[in-house]
User: Which sequence fits this backbone?
């Protein structure tokens, strides 16, 4: 059983968390022609923007209500109204995703109420939807904000009530850690069963790093609002990660669509479960391509397990990401010597580590140093942490700003798991330690100058 | 000339297998019968010679031949060095069409010059391959000229692939050392405790699991031939008091040669397995004392053996519960089968069969003694048969070399590498504990449950 310990430090050193508002904004960016708006001071937006830009290497449409001292005291409703007006005039989005911040939550603004009266005053904004997601910075991290925004969209944008089901249509709610390429990979598997999926949010349409023909001031693609409205017509909702359970439940309350939560899609056994569900939903046999991919993953696991066996990994990641990656590493024979996450794990979460700490990269450093470590897995901020620990860093999570293609890595499904296996396996191969040379006593010729010289020459060819 | 040397190499009274043969079959050599066109496996004589000499770490190993010989084979063995890395740098003359037409001698000489000037190696071994043999390059003459010209030993190794098997190449390499290296220099000093270890190549650093034991007893390894060796040490090897031969079939003739030329007694032993390691230490001490070392060495050796054995068994017994009753198929030539068999039986494992491809008659008798008369001893197991055995779940683990690795893995059977290409050292007392640990980790690995799960489309569906 996993114990969850909360670090008792007053000071977070090298934090692991990024803000929930950023996670909320990211979720809104997976909807077509949307523009997220952070309700806070302009710095709240600027920092989130920079991090998103560096991670995805894309222009990120993200705006701010630019709260000032005065508006903070008097209330931010005017700022929201002005911001929406300006955004509407300039960018013509279909959706504005409004995320609160610690600032506005602390003064406890009634954003929902404000928003209702603002929208009533503006019948001219009839082609605009505004969705409000509460994402206070003081509660949770990116994962929490992401889930909050998805649930908010469902509560507002999905047509209410039981509706006739469209045969072979399902909903997919991806986890916050899934990359645009992950989302695409899962969609392809779903479609290979003849099913069509409404993916909310769909980063593979917006942040997949394509080059649009013209300047677009909003998100570059993603789930269309029409599709979001039709989510009540699907046969079932498939949610990835425990953090998406709330959104799936909200959708069921609103439309009666049943749901199933998959705790992870990384790993052979985990994805088998997902595929079984697709077989049941579609009533079709698994396509040949998928069978081949599974067989290839099995082969990769057989070939690769040698290099994972007994290796120790220290990992810092958001709860559901932590679960997905650590369970996979456990499958492969690794030992998780240190696990740090951002919030208390859901009860029953089976992270294969005796002690999971809610903490920061400093905690990771401390735990890894005492528990042994062949590999550090964390976001790009952990570079110096890994240097101190003395192990290589595999960058995963958010942000990954010092590697190309952060949005294009796949670690879900049979193929993605294989890719992850090869990448991490190769790091282990690089780090293989040979037996420490034993220098025997009284070795003949050890003091002989010619032998020593030959050694030096041999050690430095070309010198 | 080469033909004569090959005949000599096969005439090995020191080899138990050879002694047991009829005169007629002895003439045919050790392994010529194994080379069946269309059904042969294993390396050539060049391969064997290179394996035997390459661990000499401060020498350059230059392969005279077209690219296949070296280009396809270099850096595939994990013999470890505690110092120089030169032996891992690959040198070949990469003979071209024109070299074949005009002869490769000039190119070879230039290659030797380049290596000598750029790396200043302790020596250069020049390996002759099939093509220069065929076209008649006088490699011996080139090497002699280069030795004079560059002032360092340039030693031809005449073991082209077509003359025979890997095993023959081992023997020819030993002959080269005997004729051209051993006895060419004198050590700074000698002690009554000086020994050579022959035929131990320090694969994955295995010698380093044994050397501390010898150091504790004050036994000095004058030369190890050739694991983690330096050229100078081998040149001085004739001053040792005792020779231990580790890989018997390959290097017995070398040890016998040293006995004939320098009067150094030798014995065959192994550092694989607990009882073997103890027996080897005992024999080294006994022979050293016989040669004039102080008699208390024998008592000190017994004390060390007692301490090390009980520590090793204690550590191994921790695995008994997890491994009891598991069935092992042992398929290897490199590691002495019977000594591993005894260790596995000691922790309650069942050895369902073992290969005796490279074992001597003596070894086979010992295996029968351990496993009973009905013991399954294999020669070569055809891949198809191996696949069938493993698919039927007849073994819980296959311990073998890289060739059969993927036969095992495709049947989702745990597999452990115990051949020369392995990464884990298994010698001495620590090595046997490490081997048992590896078996445990491999058999009880979580990956096996998962990969054996039926695919989702093969599972029974609800409502069907």
Assistant:
């Amino acid at each position: 059983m996993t114990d969850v310990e909360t670090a008792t430090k007053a000071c977070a050193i090298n934090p692991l968390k990024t803000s929930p508002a950023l996670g909320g904004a990211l979720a809104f960016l997976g909807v077509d022609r949307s523009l997220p708006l952070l309700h806070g001071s302009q710095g709240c937006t600027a920092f989130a923007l920079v991090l998103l830009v560096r991670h995805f290497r894309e222009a990120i449409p993200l705006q701010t209500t630019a709260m000032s001292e005065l508006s903070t005291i008097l209330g931010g409703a005017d700022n929201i109204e002005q911001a929406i007006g300006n955004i509407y005039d300039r960018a013509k989005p279909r959706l504005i995703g409004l995320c609160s911040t610690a600032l506005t939550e602390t003064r406890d603004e009634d954003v929902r109420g404000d928003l209702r009266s603002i929208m009533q005053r503006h019948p001219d904004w009839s082609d605009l939807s505004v969705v409000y997601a509460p994402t206070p910075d003081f509660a949770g991290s990116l994962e929490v904000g992401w889930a909050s925004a998805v649930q908010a969209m469902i509560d507002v944008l999905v047509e209410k009530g039981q509706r006739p089901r469209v045969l072979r249509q399902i909903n997919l709610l991806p986890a916050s850690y899934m990359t645009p390429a992950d989302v695409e990979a899962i969609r392809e598997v779903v479609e290979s069963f003849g099913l069509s999926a409404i993916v909310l949010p769909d980063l593979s349409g917006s942040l997949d790093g394509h080059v649009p023909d013209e300047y677009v001031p909003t998100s570059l693609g993603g789930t269309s609002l029409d599709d979001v409205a039709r989510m009540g017509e699907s046969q079932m909702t498939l949610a990835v990660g425990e953090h998406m359970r709330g959104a799936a439940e909200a959708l069921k309350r609103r439309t009666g669509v049943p749901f199933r939560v998959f705790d992870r899609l990384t790993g052979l056994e985990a994805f088998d479960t997902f595929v079984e569900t697709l077989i049941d939903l579609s009533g079709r046999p698994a396509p040949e391509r998928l069978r081949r991919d599974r067989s290839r993953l099995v082969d990769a696991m057989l070939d690769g397990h040698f290099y994972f066996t007994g290796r120790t990994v220290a990992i810092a990641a958001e709860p559901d990401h932590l679960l997905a990656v650590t369970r996979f590493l456990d499958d492969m024979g690794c030992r998780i010597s240190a696990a740090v996450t951002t919030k208390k794990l859901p009860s029953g979460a089976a992270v294969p580590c005796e002690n999971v700490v809610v903490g920061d990269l400093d905690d990771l450093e401390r735990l890894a140093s005492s528990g042994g470590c062949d590999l550090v897995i964390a976001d790009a901020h952990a570079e110096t942490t890994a240097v101190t620990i003395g192990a290589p860093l595999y960058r995963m999570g958010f942000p990954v700003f010092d590697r190309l293609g952060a949005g294009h890595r796949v670690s879900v499904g049979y193929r993605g798991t294989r890719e992850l296996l090869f990448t991490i396996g190769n790091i282990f191969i690089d780090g293989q330690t040979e037996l420490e040379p034993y220098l025997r006593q009284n070795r003949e010729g050890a003091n002989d100058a010619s032998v020593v010289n030959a050694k030096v020459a041999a050690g430095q060819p070309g010198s | 000339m080469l033909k004569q040397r090959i005949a000599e190499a096969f005439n090995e009274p020191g080899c138990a297998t050879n002694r047991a043969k009829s005169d007629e079959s002895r003439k045919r050599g050790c392994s010529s019968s194994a080379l069946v066109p269309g059904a042969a496996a294993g390396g050539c004589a060049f391969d064997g010679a290179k394996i035997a000499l390459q661990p000499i770490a401060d020498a350059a190993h230059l392969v005279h031949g077209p690219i296949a010989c070296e280009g396809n084979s270099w850096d595939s063995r994990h013999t470890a060095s505690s110092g120089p890395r030169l032996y891992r740098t690959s040198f070949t003359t990469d003979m071209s069409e024109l070299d074949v037409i005009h002869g490769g001698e000039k190119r070879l000489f230039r290659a030797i010059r380049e290596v000598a000037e750029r790396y200043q190696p302790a020596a250069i071994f020049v390996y002759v391959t099939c093509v220069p043999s065929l076209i008649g390059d006088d490699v011996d003459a080139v090497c002699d000229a280069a030795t004079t010209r560059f002032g360092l030993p340039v030693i031809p190794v005449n073991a082209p692939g077509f003359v025979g098997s890997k095993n023959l190449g081992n023997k020819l390499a030993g002959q080269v050392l005997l004729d051209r290296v051993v006895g060419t220099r004198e050590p700074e000093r000698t002690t009554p405790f000086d020994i050579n270890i022959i035929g131990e190549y320090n694969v994955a650093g295995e010698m380093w699991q044994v050397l501390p034991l010898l150091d504790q007893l004050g036994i000095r390894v004058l030369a190890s031939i050739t694991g983690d060796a330096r050229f100078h040490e081998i040149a001085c090897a004739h001053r040792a008091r005792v020779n231990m031969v580790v890989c018997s079939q390959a290097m017995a003739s070398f040890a016998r040669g040293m006995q004939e030329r320098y009067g150094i007694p030798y014995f065959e032993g192994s550092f694989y397995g607990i009882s073997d390691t103890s027996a080897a230490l005992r024999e080294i001490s006994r022979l050293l004392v016989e040669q004039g070392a102080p008699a208390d060495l024998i008592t000190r050796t017994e004390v060390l053996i007692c301490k090390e054995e009980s520590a090793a068994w204690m550590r191994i017994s921790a695995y008994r519960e997890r491994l009891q009753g598991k069935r092992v198929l042992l398929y290897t030539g490199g590691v002495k089968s019977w000594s591993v068999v005894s260790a596995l039986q000691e922790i309650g494992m069942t050895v369902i069969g073992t290969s005796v491809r490279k074992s001597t008659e003596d070894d086979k008798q010992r295996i029968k003694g351990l496993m009973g008369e009905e013991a399954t001893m294999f020669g070569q197991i055809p891949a198809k048969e191996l696949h069938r055995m493993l698919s039927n779940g007849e073994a819980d683990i296959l311990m073998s070399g890289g060739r059969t690795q993927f036969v095992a893995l495709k049947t989702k059977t745990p597999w452990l590498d115990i051949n020369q290409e392995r990464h884990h050292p298994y010698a001495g007392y620590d090595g046997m504990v490490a081997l048992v640990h590896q078996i445990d980790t491999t058999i009880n690995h979580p990956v096996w449950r998962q990969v054996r799960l039926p695919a989702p489309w093969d599972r029974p569906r609800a409502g069907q």
User: Anything to note?
Assistant: Chain B has a mean pLDDT of 87. The CA atoms of residues 81 and 228 of chain B lie 5 Å apart.
